[in-house]
UniProtKB/TrEMBL annotation:
GO BP annotations listed: fatty acid catabolic process
Protein name (database record): Propionyl-CoA carboxylase beta chain, mitochondrial
Summary of subunit composition and partner proteins: The holoenzyme is a dodecamer composed of 6 PCCA/alpha subunits and 6 PCCB/beta subunits.
Pfam families: Carboxyl_trans (PF01039)
Amino acid sequence: MAALRFLPRLLPVSRTRLVRSHSASASGSVPERIAEKRRAALLGGGQARIDSQHKRGKLTARERILLLLDPDSFVEYDMFVEHRCADFGMESDQNKYPGDSVVTGQGRINGRLAYVFSQDFTVFGGSLSGAHAQKICKIMDQAVMVGAPVIGLNDSGGARIQEGVESLAGYADIFLRNVLCSGVVPQISLIMGPCAGGAVYSPALTDFTFMVKDTSYLFITGPDVVKSVTNEDVTQEQLGGAKTHTAVSGVAHRAFENDVDALLNLREFFNYLPLSNRDPAPVRKCHDPSNRLVPELDTVVPMESTKAYDMVDIVHSIVDEREFFEIMPSYARNMIVGFARMNGRTVGILGNQPKVASGCLDINSSVKGARFVRFCDAFNIPLITFVDVPGFLPGTAQEYGGIIRHGAKLLFAFAEATVPKITIITRKAYGGAYDVMSSKHLRGDVNYAWPTAEVAVMGAKGAVQIIFRGKETDAEAEYVNKFANPFPAAVRGFVDDIIEPSTTRVRICRDLEVLASKMQSNPWKKHANIPL
């Protein structure tokens, strides 16, 4: 219930006043009837259902919007829309609620425009009707027209059964717009309650999906159906809770403690994003000097090539104010991705994580990285890549699972990207994984190596065993001298310079200024055929 401590300052009118107004007679002039409809819409499904929502530790649809958006900035659309169902007694006026089961409109987040829909669980469990879908489609169409992000606050029991195929058609109408909006305006889904069946595909089509711990669920079929079909006993939380989707399935990108925590984090996350594909990456005033040296980086990479270190520490020390909004921190942890700022400019960060599986690329990390690269490229966000990769993870599980196809997705994404791309090789860059991780050969704009870098076909031990067929030899040191260092790549121009690690921030900030005017395009095509 700690999440609800903000309620007193969020509610525009006291609930007591709303209840009293709602019970008053609405007969009379048109203005009185309009006012009564507005009061009824503000009450949603009624006081008892609002109280029930609060008891579950959840905010109402309107409370969520008021917390997400700047004060007094929300402009609501379609408050008077009602469902059109004429079956199963739903046509009764007692079963009609102004606004139906979703609140839609536009407002500002830190002064920047956003379109929002918030499903109202107090009205028919937030179920989707034809009218509900129509309201969402309207704001999505307008968002594309003016160039502003779409944020969905999901809390719905699914399709409204009483409407039958009309509710299914409504989902399809939304799915189409999700696809047409993709790469045009950012789309963000925040799951704040149940989301089941066909409802899950709209969040899956958006750019980022966030969840609330313990109160949000995503699954195609619920535990009862799973039990009847597969005889598996599983809880809602195990099947589709935040922990499952942020750590196991990779469906969700992050999870937050409660509604308030999620909405405040969403406000912070929104600041990193451009409003549309027509806008450059956002720039804000920076108080962290762009010429700041980072002396601790000169000793961060261990002398022993098999010893791990934390790539997140390197990222924090280089970016503005040590602020890094990591995406999918609990999934495929051998790859880190997220947003930060360099000299005030939003950048996308990728890096191999030596602490997990030695930073090897595998199926999940390749897909995670590829999806992130493509988002940044679609929305003009420069990419900074930190490389310490010994190769692709070996084994039958990876081969049978299609590591060749999935690894190609990351390669495809980096090669296709036309935004500024800066790469820093901190240690290992072996084999095909060297090529994949934003190498010069994939149109990297500026590629650096630290003195600790090892750019080679493979590690010294394995290479010597192959070259000398297991014969006794002291050639390992010779191999390291000749191949496993940054010079072979530098003399061929595959890295632009070998730099002192402490100067990395200075170099990146300077390069981003130069590359801000970069213009590069791909050959005309209807669309590419990424190896899905």
